Every structure is written in structure tokens, then in C-alpha cells.
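Example pasted here:
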Amino acid sequence: MISEELLNNYQKALQQKYNAVCFDIDGTLTEDNSTKIDSRVLPMLANMLKKHIPVVFITGRGETGLSDLLKDILYDLKSKYGVTEKQLQKMYALTNDGARIFMTSNGSKQLFNINEYISSKEELIKLDELNKKIITLLDSAILKGHCKITYSVDSNTNAIINIRILILNDSIEFNNEIIRIINSLIRDSQNPNLNLTIGMHNGKQVLQIGTATKNKAIQIAERMIGIPQNSMLRIGDCGDQFGNDYSMLNCPQGFSVEKTSGDFDKCFPVIEKGKIITGVNGTLSLLKKVKLLPTICLEHAKQNEYARTLLALEEENDTR
């Protein structure tokens, strides 16, 4: 049952004018139960880029997952939909929930030729220390075989950027106990920048531990593209309180195409003819409804301005 309060606030959110779109990828832009981008998304991405509307991918995927995204979309965007190299420069990506940023400098023919860490070296060292404790835990007799651990790593340095734990056991009690233990290890690390988010993959719960959140990624995007956060449309699928999209969607500009926070004034479901639409169908439905407009200034952020901003962010990290 969709409440009148939720529906009224949802309609207000649809009437807002948005100047950029921030997308989660998996479960939001992908085919059902797949990591492949749904082909129906491509003409909408092309339309946004041609109108000079920045497209920001904010994802738990790492460098490899970002490469997979580009393989899915680039050829068709250029050859089928006529998106130019300059228009493609309006795409940005923040991977590992915001630990790294990828963007393209003015005049570059290589997409995403700039990539920098937002997370500090110290944060990544703490994450590696936590990983060793988690390995010991998961190798114990009680948990052995019930969890699978994978990583997102830097292809050049092999530094761990994210830890992912796939829980193979379907017991809710077991899942909750694993979450409790991991949270305890994170607290014991005494590093406030390490965090745990929860998602789903093929019906199984996935725990992701990293040094960034998608809300932090939104803040970075605001500084990089020069568009206020409250003018950025955000679309994801894990908008429940512990979901990895929650911090990004927990605002009046946030929409979830799967799990929501349950609030009436933010993290909205996508509603069509009185029914909630989920998955990529929800994303497509929402993009047809919202008002997407370019800003007056259409030029790409200059690389030297980006460098100054990044330096300020690093100084901010050092003073925390």
C-alpha cells in the first residue's frame, strides 16, 4: 500500500529540475540477475550526454568492473548513438563506493585517463590489517565453507580497496551473527573511516568493507563537476539502512529501484500507475519522468582545477 504522504513527496521529487545523474550500476542499470548493462539504458545515456548532462557512475565495482561497464556501453554509444569523444567526457566514475575517481581531461582521446585515490594510504593500510583478521576468522572451523571472500584491488599496486564477503548460508541468524562479528572487528580497528555495507548477489547476502561511502562520493562529484548535490538525481537499488546505496539515496533526490529506507520524504521507490517498479525497469521509468536540464556552464572541469581540489581533499584527510 502506497501512502498518500509518500506519493505526494514522490511527485514533488519528480518536479525538481536535475542537472546531473548519479547511477549505481549493478541492479540499477543491469539486466536481471546479470552484470551486463541492459541495452535499453544506452539511448537514455546517449541522450543525457548529448544534452551535456553529466553522468556519474557511483559503484561498489572496482577497476575491473568499471572496464566491464565500458565494454558494455562505449561501442554502441559512439557507433550506434553518435556520442562524440567530447560528449563522453561528461561521464565520471567513482569506484569502490567512492575510494577512487576516474575522469577524462580536456582534449584527451583516452577515456578516464585521470584516476586518483580519494581514500588515503593510511586508510588502505588499516583495511589490509583488518583483512588479515577477517581471513583468520573465516578460516575457523565454525565458519569455514560458509563464506567466500573476494577483493577489489589496484591493478598496479595490488593494494586492497574493498573486501567482499559472500555469505553462502541462508540462515538469517547466521547472517546476522556474521554481520555482528565483522562490525566488532571494524570497531576494534579504531578507524572511523572503515565501514560495512550490505548488498545482495544472486539471492545471497554480500558484505562489503571499505574506506569510503557513496555519500562521500556524492561530495566528490559535487566538487568535480560543479553541480550542487541537491541538483543531482541519484538512482540505486540498495537503499535500506545498511545497503551500500543508502548514504547516497538518503535525500529528497534519491530513488531506489529495489530496497528503500521506508521514509516518506526520501529514498523513494519508483511508482507507476500506483505500482512500485523495480530493477532496470524502474530506472528506465524514472528517467522518462524526471526533468533533466544542463547547467549554463557546459565546459568540463579543468585538470589543474581538479588537481587543486584533490589536494584540498587530501589535506582534509590528513587533518582528520
